[in-house]
């Protein structure tokens, strides 16, 4: 009997499902080798491998037959993870569009965009629609691409090499395919580990080509782009939320808290205040001073002093949260830190420890944490852009943390030297933290395992779009000369030759998402698993027996006599074979058969009631008991992540909607002007729509009201749109014919205000919130959608 | 102290690790920064005398690290988002690359495109700076290539500098200052933004204002 066929049923039955939580390779060592005098002498690592094999198989198992609590929560967790993976890919694509439009909106607003460019912008809206499912034009192509993507996925060095060849212009679309499709399963250890292997390869190439350590990881390269994209996957996002969201939100609540410590700015503000208060400047206060003069000014010093203390306190709380959450840091991020450390040590054997810490900080703080602190909104940590003062405070905090991670040269901004105590007090702490970050295990062994498991599976699939397939193919083709010059590239060469020229990108409407079956062209189903893994037949039987009995026990009612302790394995098997359920029957039979086989092999014996096996099973059950708690805990955490990602999606979609309707207006107006300058009134008037004060207050449109409480019920608003892009808001008091106030609004102005973070729209009696007004107008006055 | 000196806002842009801060610190403080100290955002003020005229330079030194730029390079433009707003207030630009990095050189064109589009002009006071000229052995960007770019942009002043050796540092800043002085010599004081009044119009509702 081949190992594969023997293993096949057990992948379904395995009860030893891991939480497959982080990417921490199997954390639990199997204990069987500790039983002295055991007839088998197995190396610990072998045992480890077998466990890993079972764990990773069961983690993949889609239709577990067990129906207990644990199985249910595990299923919830798995579903959640796959939802997060696919949602974050959608967001990534949507974000590209929104950012593109963000960069154009300023131009749009000033009507500076040529018609041709308007069309280009409009094309981005088309692209945000969902892609339909479909299949490849023909089977032969499916097979050829299935081979190619299997090779790309399982041998990351090809993509690593490609990442080094492509230009910065090509890297974004490549990374999208690599991070969200080829290795898109963010919570699957094999894909994660392969992706990290690719990182390592690209990183070490960069170390080789960088002349001095001070330029390492500084430039914007494909590597840095990879790091950014990587940190935006699910685990990175949830980490940022854990360590930063609360702190940042606390800070931005204090809109008026000014913690500027640049003497020049403080002096300027002071002058301005004096001038506003007294109408003139005293003779001893020149309008313009040098940095040194400002720093020496006694009043300026008095303002700055308490701010320094506060800044250091705030920075301390940030730092403390980061350090306390060491264990929350995603495995992949820590592993990258570890690679930076070991690559530095290898390349610069003389590098001092603090230099190495500097480089780790160059990644962890400069590329991961600090950008999120400086621009929290784009990392989904807060809902709106912070106002001026908190924004500056966040920048100062980021500067302090960066100073801590690196060696600050206060030569740059002398006033920052006043914060030196923060650096001095925490230098040891941060260096320890940065080193601790690197203390994670490697995954090579479990990766090897996972790859074998992948080979043994028949249903490896990749959900990918036609255009992703073609774009990747085109890049491989374009850079084939460099790619194929490396060692061991024969397989890639054959596949590329067979595929021929890369097809052009298909139009958006014809693009399809397909399930591409992946399989290896060269390695068939593995028959020699035990040889490959260096494990014996008895190990395999033992693990299978264990897994079957654990599963039987989970399925049997807790009250069943067979479930009583101490366990009687034969009795459990017998009970199962009397059950009507065919699955249970088969498992019972298999269990009994394995007991006999293992006894014949001398692994276990009837005399002590199969003690070794029994103990392991009991241990496993205890472990599974606590596992449920862990799974539920993780589920809870991920639900939050999923919610954040979905919220962000809703935000992105509404942003796109706003731009859409704006562009529509711009176009219909310019069309109107061109075609029939005379007939302006063709457009029908929309509205008026009536809104009560209470209604708008509830929806957050009114962010501040000066109307006395007892009058609010009598206030209402009418909104009319006489023509696209123009709105008239009028404020009415019940019983009076004429409105109290009328305001003409252009959509352009609202967008411009939003663009400039100007959130207040003043109607004298009430203050509207600009983004909320925009949302309201969009909802109510959406004109024809197809344009 | 002179009654009122002209003030110019200039910004130093370019890829990560090309030496923007080293160049600026050499110019402003006369120091060479040896350590690994990536910038998030620094600002400086320096009074300079050029051709017998005195003026104030407000220099904003930016992060080259792309993670701090909240745009994604989907189009031809790549300016930090915040700078898109600020670009209207900024008078002069130093575009820095490293002669040892071709990609850093290639990042300049999209930056200039963005500036011109946002400022709605065909031409803006600007200097191209190829830093790290002391690392001749690692050169990736030939002088010819840089000259070509300068010509393409309408003979924009181009310098190769070494912040480490303090070569061509003052020249770069002075050249930009001269351009600014020349440009603003006509209008009597209103043209160049004076930092303090930039936020002055904030009370006005509904009108655009640039918040720094």
Automatic annotation (TrEMBL), chain A:
Q: Which GO terms describe its biological process?
A: negative regulation of Ras protein signal transduction; signal transduction
Q: Gene3D superfamilies under this entry?
A: GTPase Activation - p120gap, domain 1
* Ranges of biased composition (kind: Polar residues): 27-36
Q: Does the keyword Ligase apply?
A: no
Enumerate the residue ranges of region (Disordered): 1-41
GO CC field: cell cortex
Question: Coiled-coil annotation: which residues?
Answer: 63-90
Q: Low complexity: which segments have biased composition?
A: 10-21
Tell me which CDD domains the record gives.
RasGAP_GAPA
Its name, as the record gives it, is Rho GTPase activation protein
Species: Sphaerosporella brunnea
Automatic annotation (TrEMBL), chain B:
Entry annotated with the keyword Cell membrane: no
**Which residue windows does the record flag with biased composition (Gly residues)?**
187-200
Q: Which SUPFAM superfamilies match?
A: P-loop containing nucleoside triphosphate hydrolases (SSF52540)
Protein keywords? GTP-binding, Hydrolase, Membrane, Nucleotide-binding, Transmembrane, Transmembrane helix
Cellular component GO terms, alphabetical: membrane
Q: Name one GO biological process term.
A: signal transduction
Residue stretches spanning the membrane:
79-99
Q: Check the record and name the SMART domains matching this protein.
A: RAB, RAS, RHO
Q: Where is this region: Disordered?
A: 183-212
Name one molecular function that GO assigns to this entry.
GTP binding
Q: Where is the composition biased (Basic residues)?
A: 201-212
> Superkingdom of the source?
Eukaryota
Q: Coiled-coil intervals in this record? A: none
Pfam families reported for this sequence: Ras
Q: Does the keyword Nucleotide-binding apply?
A: yes
Q: What is this protein called?
A: P-loop containing nucleoside triphosphate hydrolase protein
Source species of the chain: Sphaerosporella brunnea
């Amino acid at each position: 009997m081949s190992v594969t066929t023997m293993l096949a049923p057990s992948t379904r039955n395995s009860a030893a499902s891991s939480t497959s939580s982080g990417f921490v390779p199997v954390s639990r060592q199997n204990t069987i080798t500790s039983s002295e005098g055991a007839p088998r002498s197995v190396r610990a690592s072998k045992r480890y491998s077998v466990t890993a094999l079972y764990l990773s198989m069961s983690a993949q198992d889609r239709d577990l037959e067990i129906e207990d609590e644990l199985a249910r929560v595990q299923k919830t967790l798995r579903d959640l993870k796959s939802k997060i993976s696919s949602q974050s890919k959608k967001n990534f694509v949507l974000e590209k569009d929104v950012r593109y439009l963000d960069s154009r909106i300023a131009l749009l607003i000033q009507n500076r965009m040529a018609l041709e460019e308007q069309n280009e912008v409009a094309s981005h809206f088309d692209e945000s629609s969902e892609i339909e499912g479909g299949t490849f034009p023909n089977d032969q192509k499916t097979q050829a691409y299935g081979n190619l993507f299997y090779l790309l996925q399982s041998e990351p060095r090809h993509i690593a090499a490609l990442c080094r060849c492509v230009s910065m212009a090509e890297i974004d679309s490549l990374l999208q395919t690599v991070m969200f499709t080829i290795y898109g399963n963010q919570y699957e250890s094999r894909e994660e580990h392969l992706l990290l292997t690719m990182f390592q390869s690209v990183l070490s190439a960069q170390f080789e080509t960088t002349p001095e350590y001070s330029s390492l990881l500084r430039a914007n390269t494909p590597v840095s782009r990879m790091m950014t994209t990587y940190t935006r996957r699910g685990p990175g996002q949830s980490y940022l939320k854990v360590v930063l969201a609360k702190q940042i939100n606390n800070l931005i609540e204090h809109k008026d808290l000014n913690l500027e410590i640049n003497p020049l700015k403080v002096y300027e503000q002071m002058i301005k205040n004096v001038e506003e208060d007294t109408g003139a400047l005293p003779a001893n206060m020149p309008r313009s001073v040098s940095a040194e003069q400002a720093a020496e000014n006694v009043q300026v010093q008095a303002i700055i002093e308490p701010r320094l203390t506060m800044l250091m306190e705030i920075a301390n709380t940030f730092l403390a949260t980061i350090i306390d959450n060491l264990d929350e840091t995603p495995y992949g991020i820590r592993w990258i830190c570890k690679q930076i450390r070991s690559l530095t040590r290898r390349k610069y054997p003389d590098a001092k420890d603090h230099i190495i810490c500097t480089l780790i900080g160059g990644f962890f703080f400069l590329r991961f944490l600090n950008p999120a602190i400086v621009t929290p909104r784009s990392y989904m940590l807060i809902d709106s852009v912070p106002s001026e003062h908190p924004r500056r405070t966040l920048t100062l905090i980021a500067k302090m943390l960066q100073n801590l991670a690196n060696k600050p040269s206060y030569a740059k901004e002398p006033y920052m030297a006043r914060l030196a105590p923060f650096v001095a007090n925490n230098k040891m702490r941060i260096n320890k933290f940065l080193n601790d970050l690197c203390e994670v295990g490697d995954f090579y062994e479990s990766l090897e395992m996972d790859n074998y498991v992948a080979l043994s599976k028949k249903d490896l699939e990749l959900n990918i779009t036609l255009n992703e397939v073609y774009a990747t193919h085109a890049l491989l083709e374009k850079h084939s000369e460099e790619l194929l010059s490396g060692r061991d590239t024969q397989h890639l060469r054959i596949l590329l030759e067979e595929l021929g020229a890369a097809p052009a990108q298909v139009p958006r409407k014809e693009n399809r998402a397909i399930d591409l079956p992946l399989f290896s062209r060269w390695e068939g189903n593995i028959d020699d698993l035990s040889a490959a893994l260096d494990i014996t037949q008895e190990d395999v039987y033992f693990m299978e027996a264990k897994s079957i009995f654990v599963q039987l026990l989970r399925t049997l009612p807790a009250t069943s006599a067979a479930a009583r302790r101490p366990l009687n394995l034969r009795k459990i098997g017998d009970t199962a074979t009397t059950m009507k359920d065919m699955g249970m029957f088969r498992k019972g039979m298999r269990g009994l058969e394995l007991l006999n086989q293992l006894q014949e092999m001398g692994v276990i014996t009837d005399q002590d009631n199969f003690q070794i096996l029994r103990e392991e099973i009991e241990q496993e059950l205890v472990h599974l008991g606590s596992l449920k708690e862990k799974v539920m805990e993780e589920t809870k955490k991920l639900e939050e992540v999923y919610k954040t990602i979905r919220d962000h999606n809703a935000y992105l979609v509404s942003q796109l909607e706003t731009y859409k309707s704006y562009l529509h207006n711009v176009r219909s107006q310019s069309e109107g002007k061109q075609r029939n300058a005379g007939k302006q009134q063709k457009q029908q008037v929309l509205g008026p729509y009536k809104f009560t004060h209470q209604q708008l207050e509830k929806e957050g449109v009114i962010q501040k009201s000066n109307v006395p409480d007892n009058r609010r019920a009598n206030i209402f608003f009418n909104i009319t749109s006489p023509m696209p892009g123009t709105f008239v808001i009028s404020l009415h008091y019940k019983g009076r014919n004429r409105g109290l106030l009328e305001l003409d609004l252009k959509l352009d102005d609202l967008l411009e205000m939003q663009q400039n973070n100007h959130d207040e729209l003043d109607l004298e009696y009430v203050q509207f919130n600009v983004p909320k007004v925009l949302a309201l107008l969009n909802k109510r006055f959406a004109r024809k959608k197809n344009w | 102290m002179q009654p009122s000196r002209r003030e110019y806002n200039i910004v130093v842009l370019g890829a990560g690790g090309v030496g923007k801060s080293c160049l600026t610190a050499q110019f402003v403080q006369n120091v060479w920064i040896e350590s690994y100290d990536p910038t998030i955002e620094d600002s400086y003020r320096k009074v300079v005398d050029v051709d017998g005229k005195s003026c104030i330079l407000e220099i904003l030194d930016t992060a080259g690290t792309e993670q701090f730029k909240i745009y994604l390079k989907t189009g031809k433009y790549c300016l930090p988002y915040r700078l898109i707003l600020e670009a209207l207030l900024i008078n002069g630009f130093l575009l820095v690359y490293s002669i040892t990095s071709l990609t850093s050189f290639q990042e300049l064109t999209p930056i200039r495109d963005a500036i011109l589009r946002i400022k709605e002009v065909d031409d803006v006071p600007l200097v191209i700076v190829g830093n790290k000229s002391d690392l001749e052995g690692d050169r990736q960007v030939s002088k010819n290539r840089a000259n070509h770019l300068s010509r393409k942009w309408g003979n924009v002043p181009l310098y190769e500098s070494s912040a480490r050796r303090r070569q061509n540092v003052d020249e770069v800043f002075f050249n930009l200052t001269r351009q600014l002085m020349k440009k603003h010599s006509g209008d009597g004081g209103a043209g160049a933004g004076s930092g303090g009044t930039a936020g002055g119009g904030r009370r006005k509702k509904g009108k655009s204002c640039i918040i720094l």
